[in-house]
Amino acid sequence: MSCDCCGKKEKALEKLMKLEPKKTTELVAFIDSLPLGNDIDANRGCLIETLHRAQTIFGYLPAEVQQLVSERLKITRSEIYGVISFYSYFTDKPIGRHKINVCCGTACFVKGATRIVDEFKSKLGIKEGETTPDKKFFLGVLRCVGACSLAPVVMVDDHVYGKVTPEMVSTILADYQD
Amino acid sequence: MTITSLSDLKALKARLDQSASDKVKILMSLGTCGLAAGGSKVVDAIEETMASQNLGDKYEAVPVGCMGLCYCEPTIELRDNSGKSIIYGDVTAEQIPAILKAGMSGAPAGTTVVERTWYYPEDEANTHKALQARIALRNTGCINPELIEDYIRQDGYQALGKVLSGMKPAEVSQLVLEANLRGRGGAGFPTGKKWQFAAAQPKGKKYMICNADEGDPGAFMDRAVLEGDPHSVLEAMTIGGYAIGSDIGIIYIRAEYPLAITRLRIAIDQAHEMGFLGKNILNSGFDFDIELKYGAGAFVCGEETALIHSVEGRRGEPTFKPPFPAVQGLWKHPTVVNNVETYANVAAIIRKGAAWFRTVGTAGSPGTKVFALAGKVNHVGLVEVPMGTTLRDIIFSLGGGISKGRAFKAVQTGGPSGGCITTKNLDTPIDYETLKAIGSMMGSGGMIVMDEDDCMVNIARFFLEFTCDESCGKCTPCRIGNRRLYEMLTDICHGKGTPQTLVELRNLALVIKDTALCGLGQTSPNPVLSTLTNFADEYEAHVNEKRCPAGVCERLVRFTINEKCVGCGVCARNCPVTAITGATKKRHVINQDKCIKCGICFEKCMFKAIDKQ
């Protein structure tokens, strides 16, 4: 039996395999390890976990990955997109090699986080949620990393910079000259 | 090794106690903020010094969770077997050899010794009149969170043993109810009651959920517990599972807390190995298991029905209650959702009894509350105080007063759902009811202190911006109402507000409070309402005089140069738009038409010659 969706199915997996064979294999292996069945509700319970893993592997959630997850978990693309757009952790846009996140929690806010964000914006020439054209830096803001004693705080990848001043911004960026 | 009975467990504890070394322990605070402040360099120095000076038989280095002294990280504590201790703050790697040389004899010169401001109600009387009482944080900062033996040495899993070896499920709920343990997530619902509701449902699948989706910006107490004492949460969930007749627990944790996730995973594995989780726990016939589910960054998922939807893999939108989750929750089965800090209290209550728990705190709200003290206060960190402590004690005694010698203006409790409390209420003994009465709420326990340099209109706008971002969009009052509130506040901050704006602001805020679907929407106007009430003069200054008294709202600020100017030219050189002109050694002038109000001149001037109005 053949139908549109089966045709598409081949395409999503094939295309991904062509683009990112290693990553795709890793994701498929992960999905295969899940206790999936025909019970859509039970499959849905694994959705967020799957998206987390997919984003860790691919760095973001491109349309092909969403399609693949949709087929394997038997959940519609629209619903998956609904989940991705709901949670701020998930993104369907490629992000830079280094993720800069300026904490804008209350403690950082009262200690001047807005000025830090402005400084990054002007130094990088991008807005929050964007990636530099050379794909090097992504600039984001997040709500509280819980290091309020070091406010204002900036996280670059997994490294935390505390008590950041606008003057420190260029020094921070210089740490990532690759 | 598997533990199969309470007496087994007690025997193990006795063996552990006996084999305890008489070495002095070096407790190294290695929570997220300890690590961020450079804690690992201190750890390296300790290991190096111990190796090079052969101190291995004198000291034992123990990595622990957060001690709550975030303001002076990296922190270490030397503690000997008699309980004597010295706490060092702001430790540097260079100080380590001297500190280890001195040992318990006293602190070497040049180090910072921190006074212990807490006592442990479970083990000791409050002899040094400490303001803090640590029940939920009793092990955090004392034990190695990655060793189950350390937890067992602190009477860990004894409460579970007691429950499984001689208490009926109904007795457990009843005990927690008698202790009047109230939900520490902020709403204050009696935990025992929640358990009774779920227990009263027909037998079948039931779920025990731990809400570890700490989304309130500026609150980090749950993270401290999970990173520093993960077993206490596992033990309490298992006890709760027994009380309601559930065999599965789920910890819903923020993906932003990688260290807490790692430590929970280790703890769950260890509990399995020892038989505190899994089938037939302590040979009682009771089965219980715990799994982790990750949040993905949505503040609304702190609301229990939204959290449940998120666990089910859906968008985390709340639903109308009733039916309450205790009746119909996860996958439509009875579900209890409790907060991390609530669970952290349970084992102590079981061990020491309800009457003991009620001796701490106030009659209506027994026990303690952990607050994350942050903002413009000298001693940023975690404090656990008995309910009924005044804000003055927390901010000025434990918090060490306002930083840079500024004047206190307000404190925000309850995060984006709470309100601002001003000087006049500093002496109110705080518990769930009193905070509500003064226009705020307990919330999860974030406590942000603000000083005279903070503009309250701008603060309200900050919280509304947050709410707009985090509103799930399901109900109209929250989705559109909060957006309108935010726009009005922006107008006011930009000098476009009119007296009519203030009237509309209050009206809309009240409507949202009455009509929103869930806790997020119903409480989101609180920051607006409380600042409108307590700081009406600031709103009026913005609206009537187009002036920001705190000098924060950029578009309303005016920078001018006063007679203190010596003409050094620093301001002119740093001005990004060359709005400052003047001859050398002559008073400079700011061209107001060109000025973009960035404030750089104000910061750079060393002669206080720039006025900000």
TrEMBL record, chain A:
The domain of life is Bacteria
SUPFAM superfamilies recorded: Thioredoxin-like
Which CDD domains does its entry note? Answer: TRX_Fd_NuoE (cd03064)
Kindly indicate whether the keyword Ribosomal protein belongs to this entry.
no
Check the UniProt entry and state the signal peptide residues, or none.
none
Cite the GO molecular-function annotations of the record.
Answer: 2 iron, 2 sulfur cluster binding; metal ion binding
Q: Which UniProt keywords apply?
A: 2Fe-2S, Iron, Iron-sulfur, Metal-binding
Cofactor(s) annotated in UniProt:
[2Fe-2S] cluster
Family membership: Belongs to the complex I 24 kDa subunit family.
What name does this protein carry? Answer: NADH:ubiquinone oxidoreductase subunit E
Automatic annotation (TrEMBL), chain B:
One Pfam family linked to the record: NADH_4Fe-4S
**What InterPro entries does UniProt report for this protein, alphabetically?**
4Fe4S_Fe-S-bd, 4Fe4S_Fe_S_CS, NADH-UbQ_OxRdtase_51kDa_CS, Nuo51_FMN-bd, Nuo51_FMN-bd_sf, Nuop51_4Fe4S-bd, Nuop51_4Fe4S-bd_sf, Thioredoxin-like_sf
- Asked if the keyword Metal-binding belongs to this entry, the reply reads yes
Q: What CDD domains does the record point to?
A: TRX_Fd_family (cd02980)
GO molecular function ontology, one term from the record: FMN binding
Coiled-coil zones: none
- Sequence ranges assigned to domain 4Fe-4S ferredoxin-type in this UniProt record: 557-585, 586-613
Which UniProt key words apply to this protein? 4Fe-4S, Iron, Iron-sulfur, Metal-binding
Give the family, as the similarity comment puts it. Belongs to the complex I 51 kDa subunit family.
What's the protein name? NADH:ubiquinone oxidoreductase subunit F (NADH-binding)/Pyruvate/2-oxoacid:ferredoxin oxidoreductase delta subunit/(2Fe-2S) ferredoxin
Organism, as annotated:
Oligosphaera ethanolica
